């Protein structure tokens, strides 16, 4: 069921003894596992069994604090027991995964204890046992949007309370498809850590606006000072973004998950979803009949999309098929070439009264590309997508794609076209090369960042904290 904003009592904290025991045992168990999640060394099985025993004892002790997850936690103990009794082969936690349904309990502040052998996107690529203590972020205006025109029953926005090392990284998602299972089920939920998104946004944009001397409108400046406000803004952004992946005039499958295709197509898909959130936020902001809180946050979503894309996405991660980075570069260049973003006298400025129409225009170009795609062969669609991007961004001088269709192996399988795309097909501009060097320490510092739950009662703002961990590709 979808529940509007009520606050559930907190039962477990990051200092709870049972949680600390579970976290320590899971972390120790990770050192014994290999990439597929198994513990192949028989000499390590006794230690692994001890760690599993500690984990299951802790889960059992903590279960009364999570009555909404009772069946899941019961099956979690069973799955751990079966894995241990079977000699720690490749883990299979399908039964407990199917019983975990956080999308059924979207209550502001409701906690979940999540323990699975899984990889963490932009974190560990191995299916190690990870444990995450989380709480739901579900403000009333977001519940209203979801119950209205922006239905998304799978979407669960969450906040970190504590986590094992796989999340001491840039990973900001909790997806069921990352869990080790014997068969792929139908996925019924997807969770996004809005507190991490908000905290790193605030830190990066604060630094970038200082470096570029960008003067912020008052409401945009307030967004950088208030962690809770930023979290709620990202909840709205993510709600609309997430539902957009399967809506609109799409290529048959915009991601073509099991197919290999040029990375700039993934870039356009992610950017399309963000620009849809931008466009809808403009519409909501202008709707005098909309919830006042929804209208307020709608304006903030517009700032968040632009700033996160041009300041963080564009320069985060390496230059190997960085599709989120490319999307940030494209938005910046599009705004600059349409004369609403200016870099003059070593200062950045944005014409906010005209910016929305220009940003929406880029989204419309991508939507037109998609609309025409169902009438085109795959290679023709790829070439049209490349033309869209290269019409704004300058390709790598060494690019074969930039030479046009005559230089490409069109007679062969599509894989040959993908192989011709350079890892850095659209290099950073001189502006971004300079900005990246100045911003690199700030970007690095956001790995493992979370939003603090301690609110300053005098100002109504929250601060952010970060752990000192190595930077990894962000998204």
Going across the biggest sheet, name each strand in turn: 1-2-3-5-4
| Low-confidence spans | 1-9, 453-475
Oligomer: single chain
Find the count of extended strands (DSSP E, 2+ residues). Answer: 9
Radius of gyration from the alpha-carbon trace, in angstroms:
23 Å
Mean pLDDT: 91
The CA-CA distance between the termini, in Å, is 29 Å
Strand content: 5-15%
Layout of SSEs?
Layout: H1 17-30, H2 45-62, H3 70-85, H4 94-99, E1 111-118, E2 128-136, H5 140-147, E3 155-163, E4 173-174, E5 190-193, H6 194-212, H7 218-225, H8 227-244, H9 263-286, H10 292-312, H11 323-337, E6 341-344, E7 347-350, H12 352-373, H13 378-390, H14 414-419, H15 430-445, E8 450-456, E9 461-465
Parallel strand pairs: 3-5
Antiparallel strand pairs: 1-2, 2-3, 4-5, 6-7, 8-9
Helix pairs in contact: 1-2, 2-3, 6-8, 6-10, 6-15, 8-9, 8-10, 9-10, 9-11, 9-12, 10-11, 12-13
């Amino acid at each position: 069921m979808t529940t509007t904003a009520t606050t559930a009592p907190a039962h477990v904290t990051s200092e709870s003894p049972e949680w600390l025991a579970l976290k320590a045992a899971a972390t120790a168990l990770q050192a014994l596992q290999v990439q597929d999640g198994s513990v192949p060394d028989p000499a390590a099985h006794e230690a692994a069994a001890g760690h599993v025993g500690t984990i299951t004892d802790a889960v059992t002790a903590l279960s009364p604090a999570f009555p909404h997850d009772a069946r899941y936690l019961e099956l979690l103990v069973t799955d751990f027991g079966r894995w241990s009794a079977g000699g720690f082969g490749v883990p299979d936690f399908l039964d407990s995964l199917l019983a975990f349904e956080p999308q059924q309990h979207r209550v502001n502040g409701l906690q979940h204890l999540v323990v699975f052998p899984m990889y963490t996107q932009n974190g560990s690529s191995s299916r190690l046992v990870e444990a995450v203590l989380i709480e739901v972020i579900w403000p009333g205006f977001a519940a209203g949007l979801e119950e209205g025109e922006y239905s998304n029953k799978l979407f669960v926005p969450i906040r970190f309370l504590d986590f094992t090392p796989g999340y001491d990284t840039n990973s900001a998602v909790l997806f069921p498809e990352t869990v080790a299972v014997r068969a792929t089920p139908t996925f019924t939920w997807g969770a996004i850590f809005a507190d991490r998104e908000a905290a790193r946004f605030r830190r990066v944009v604060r630094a970038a606006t200082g470096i570029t001397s960008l003067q912020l409108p008052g409401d945009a400046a307030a967004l950088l000072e208030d962690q809770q406000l930023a979290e709620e803004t990202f909840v709205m952004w993510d709600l609309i973004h997430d539902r957009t992946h399967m809506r609109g005039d799409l290529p048959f499958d915009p991601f073509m998950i099991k197919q290999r295709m040029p990375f700039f197509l993934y870039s356009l898909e992610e950017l399309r979803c963000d620009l849809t959130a931008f466009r809808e936020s403009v519409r909501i902001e202008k709707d005098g009949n909309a919830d006042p809180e929804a209208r307020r946050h709608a304006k903030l979503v517009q700032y968040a999309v632009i700033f996160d894309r041009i300041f963080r996405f564009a320069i985060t991660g390496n230059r190997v098929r960085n599709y989120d980075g490319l999307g940030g570069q494209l938005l910046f260049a599009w705004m600059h070439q349409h004369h609403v973003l200016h870099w003059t006298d070593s200062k950045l400025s944005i014409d906010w009264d005209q910016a929305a129409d220009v940003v929406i225009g880029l989204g419309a170009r991508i939507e037109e590309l998609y609309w025409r795609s169902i009438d085109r062969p795959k290679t023709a669609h790829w070439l049209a997508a490349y033309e869209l991007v290269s019409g704004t961004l300058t390709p790598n001088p060494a690019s074969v794609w930039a030479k046009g269709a005559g230089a490409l192996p069109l007679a062969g399988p599509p894989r040959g076209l993908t192989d011709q795309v350079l890892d850095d097909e659209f290099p950073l501009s001189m502006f971004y090369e300079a900005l990246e060097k100045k911003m690199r320490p700030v970007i690095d510092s956001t790995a493992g960042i979370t939003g603090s739950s301690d609110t300053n009662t005098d100002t109504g703002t929250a601060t952010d904290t970060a752990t000192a961990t190595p930077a990894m590709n962000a998204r």
